[in-house]
Amino acid sequence: MKNFEYGDKYITEKEIAYAVPSMVIGVGILTLPRLLATTTKTDGYIALLVAGGLSIIITWLIAALPSRFPGQSFYSYTGRIATKPVALLLTIGISLYFLALTSYLIRVVSMVAKQYLFDITPLEVIAFLFLLIIIYGGAGGSIGVLRLNLMFVPIILLISFTVVLFNIGLMEFQNLYPFLKSDLKSYFVGIKDSHFAFAGTGILLFYISLVKQPIKVPKYAGLSMVIPTILYLIIHLSCILVFSYSVTGTLLYPTIELAKEVQIPGGFFERFESIFFTVWIMAIFNTTLMAFDISILALSSVVTSWSRMTWIYILSPIAFVMAMLPQNFNAVSLFGNFLSYVGMGLTQAIPILLLVTGCWDRVEIEERGFVVGMAIDLIENENKDGTDQYEVTFQYVIPAGFGYTQGGGAQEAFKNVTETGESLHEIGKELAIEVSRSPYYEHLQLVVISEDVAKSEGALENILDFLIRDHEMRRSTKVVISKGEPAIKILETEPKVEKLPTMYIDSILENHFKTAKLLMPTVVGDLHENLLQENNFVIPSIRTKDDLIKVDGGAVFKGLSNKLIGFIDENEVMGLNFIVSEVKGGTIKTNYKNSLVVYEIERADSKVEPIVKSEDNVEFTIKIKTEGKIVQSFKPVDFLNQKEIDQIEKALEKSLESTVKNTIERTQKEIKVDILGLNRILEHKRYDSWQKMKKHWDKGEGTFPTAKINIDTNVIIRTTGTSTKTTN
């Protein structure tokens, strides 16, 4: 077999163009959205674009230097420009820097893998296995390292854009408001953090010597930085649109949480984040491998008599020891920041993917206890000091219950296990001691919180902390409030048409598109955002009725205290849904000529316009438009008569207006908390005015309870069904 000409000696501009984004994309893709959301809030994309533009220019300038000295090492051409002693110090310094970067990347991938994949595997074991793979990859030489990028970079981009694509349905564009509200200092901090994420172009100082004709390399290298710029921008905007800036700023690795939100239609692949992890590990593998390779290349150019493997044997233990030195996450972050400054813009590469290694610590599926539902109740004055305890019921799935025993009898498909304790984390640990199968929360669908718990000081925050801190929990888990009865009673209901009570309740909550009297399901991610932003919010409330489950209106929570302050009924929920434009279907009934007419909603929309006269005098006009058809009439009606159609439309408009007004009146006069979203309307449309009145908007005798709210309804009958008359 004939070898490819120059295949073992040279590379082309193409390999360089792939190597630059491969070196950049890595740790930053996981953490950059959090850093920008913390500093620049919704304006992070501006800092990203500025940093990306600067990185393109800087990359071109860095590549221009070695391109003028074809075939020469960094040590060689630096010696010609400066002096040999200076070149020696710079070469050794850069080698040590890339070795430290290798250690940092080994530590980061070990921490992430331990948190999300191998939580019971020692950190040192993960790091050591990863280092072994780096050694194996580095033994083959620099050419092989660079050509790995040709295969891995397209896969990384494909999976990253797939994550964004499958999250489009969860994006809310109002999360981008308000625009351009960050101060100058915040922009500079955001640009600095973004610039660190674009670091890693220092590899060009060494790899360009492997290009036979490097004259075009600066152009290719500069243009290649467009790839991470676009990728970072899309990932950052997706995190803000899905989670909001306030939530993104609290997530340790927002991009991983974004991947966890992906749900493949059809349910044939349940954990898409496993693909994302695989690809990310590939990416960080290439990044670490190139950093390690540069460290070897630098020292080999100084001491030419030693072989590559000799340097690998010397540097590998040093890299492992440095990786294990930081004691915690904060120390690792400080280590990374130190490297960013030391690198002077030539460092902090964001890695390609590492192949998941080792599965000796896996948990077999037969040993997992799949928890699908939780019910949280309160036991008052249970402790010796008079404090309360939680009583938590876990609903386990019994797989055998979905089939039949050999005798033909059906078996229970679930089992409820109840534990008590002062914290949910403590209860979870106690559960693992008493139940043979360790609790596994990846399939948790529903959390039921009792009314007593919801009214307790700090209880909701404690529950949410447990739900978002555990890596097995999903932000899409639904949350409901049990009204007037213990939460455990909800999970003890045995449905007639479903095997699991949790699935039964979940199916009912998903019927919101069939009726306007159901709230949109509230998920853990929504609660997290509301608590961070101190929003008032409403959670669906449920209760039992004749051994069935009924969704009975909503539970109202006040933003500052995060405590339950009251309930609204299903008709008030209907009015609320029309105001906030969350109606997906349902009916409107009216009395026309002393007879009932039923109108089915096909689409509905609302627009709210605020008029701010002063801080204490605000007026709103809510315009509601709905289109649909007549599905039932209890009186002979000629639907070919436009005049009669107009009269029915007016009757329906009055009925809808009455429903909405009742919701507004109850909210302003009794609840006195803005759950209508009017505060967000003011923030988006009258930002300056809102800043003056937000402190007293719905607190005490604030502006909200006295605000004038006008209702303008417009009901359009598009069709009347297949009959033009009911009777003669």
UniProtKB/TrEMBL annotation:
Record field: transmembrane: 16-33, 45-65, 86-106, 126-146, 153-174, 194-211, 223-245, 275-299, 311-329
Main location: membrane
Domain Spore germination GerAC-like C-terminal stretches: 552-721
Pfam family, one: Spore_GerAC
Domain Spore germination protein N-terminal: 361-543
Entry similarity comment: Belongs to the GerABKC lipoprotein family.
Protein name: Ger(X)C family spore germination protein
Classification lineage: Bacteria, Bacillati, Bacillota, Bacilli, Bacillales
